[in-house]
């Protein structure tokens, strides 16, 4: 996907308003500017930021379209991918979870500079986030699937939709996780890379706990 194709995809999928384009462009500018201070994205992806990062994040929204009311919780948000992009493209409350101080400061600065009042940052480890009823949980390059589920299960309910980009390891990670976790899992192909995939899950629960019960 080229940068031009990425912008066209966004326009088709979300009918992007002028104000939303301005926020997306402002975020990209801030992201690339901050790259001089900290390694937020791989340097090799800088020329392809719209395809590799903006669309790669935005494609999670349609996959979670059936979610009920409630917050979108993004684990290990780092540069704000997908959390910032989700907040720009939707009105759903977004909580980004990040433990690294410089990343926390960066995320809070972005929220302030582009005026995203329905998004917030929790500074700490995922395991320490107070138990919540997330409508959607996302995580991009956060942890292998079994550890990801273990760390965040307290934030979910049976109705929570998990949207988890897993690159080319999606099927292997899913097979590893289903030894200890049950739920409704399926794999969606990424629109930005035919070899990459996204794990979508709901009704996630520990198989061990069920066995003990």
Can you count the beta strands?
A: 7
What name does the CATH topology carry? Rossmann fold
Tell me, what is the CATH class?
Alpha Beta
Largest sheet, order of strands side by side?
3-2-1-4-5-7-6
Determine the structural class based on helices, strands and strand pairing.
Answer: alpha/beta
Largest sheet: 7 strands, mixed
Element string (H = helix, E = strand): HHHHEHEHEEHEHEEH
Full CATH superfamily name: Vaccinia Virus protein VP39
| Total discrete domains | 1
Low-confidence stretches: none
In the CATH hierarchy, the architecture is 3-Layer(aba) Sandwich
Determine the strand fraction and express it as a percent band: 15-25%
Annotation field: number of helices: 9
The whole-number mean of residue pLDDT values reads: 92
> What is the distance, rounded to the nearest whole angstrom, between the alpha carbons of the first and last residues?
48 Å
Instruction: Indicate the percent of residues in helices.
Output: 40-55%
- Choose one word for the global shape: globular
């Amino acid at each position: 996907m080229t940068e031009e194709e990425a912008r066209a995809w966004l326009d088709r999928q979300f009918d992007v308003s002028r104000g939303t384009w301005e926020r997306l462009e402002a975020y990209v500018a801030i992201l690339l500017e901050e790259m001089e201070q900290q390694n937020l994205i791989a340097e090799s992806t800088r020329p392809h930021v719209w395809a590799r990062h903006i669309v790669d994040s935005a494609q999670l929204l349609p996959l979670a379209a059936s979610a009920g009311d409630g917050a979108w919780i993004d684990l290990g948000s780092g540069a704000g991918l997908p959390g910032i992009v989700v907040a720009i493209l939707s009105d759903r409350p977004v909580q980004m979870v990040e433990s690294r101080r410089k990343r926390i400061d960066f995320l809070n600065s972005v929220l302030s500079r582009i005026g995203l009042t329905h998004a917030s940052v929790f500074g700490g480890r995922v395991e320490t986030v107070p138990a919540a009823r997330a409508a959607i949980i996302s995580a991009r390059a956060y942890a292998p699937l079994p550890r990801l589920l273990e760390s965040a299960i307290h934030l979910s309910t049976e109705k929570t939709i998990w949207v988890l980009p897993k690159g080319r390891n999606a099927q292997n990670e899913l097979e590893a996780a289903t030894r200890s976790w049950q739920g409704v899992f399926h794999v969606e192909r990424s629109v930005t890379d035919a070899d990459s995939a996204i794990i979508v899950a709901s009704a996630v629960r520990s198989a061990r706990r069920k066995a003990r019960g």
